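To whoever is on call:

I kicked off a structure prediction for a single chain this morning and the downstream step that reads the tokens threw a length-mismatch warning. I double-checked the sequence; it's 126 residues and nothing unusual in it as far as I can see. Pasting both halves so you can look.
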Amino acid sequence: QWRLVESGGGFVQPGESLRLSCTAKGYSLRNYVIGWFRQAPGKEREGVSCLSRKGLTTLYVDAVPGRFTIVKDNSLNTVYLEMNRLEPDDTAVYYCATQSLGYWDCSGLPRDYVDWGQGTQVTVSS
């Protein structure tokens, strides 16, 4: 059974937006570093964005301000990845993941994360 559940993926046209959700089951996201990753067909899984336990965010894939934003709602125990101005190259399965308890700082490396969701497909095409 997945402890992290992603949702919100879909098929969109270039330039449109999506908001992905990641909800934890059975533990509080307050105590964990949370990362969003993606994996396109034939490519390795790569970091998209991360939220540290100090509340600091790190962006790994795109330096354009506002295109990818990670937001946490502690009341819902959910982390969101807001994606704007989507491009065909953003097509991938998107995953959320958490590091082990006790870690504080972000990492863009999948090997540093221990809990993963099942992923949600995002397809950007005209």
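Update from on-call: the warning came from a stale cache, not from the record. Cleared it. Sanity check on the structure: The mean pLDDT is 94.
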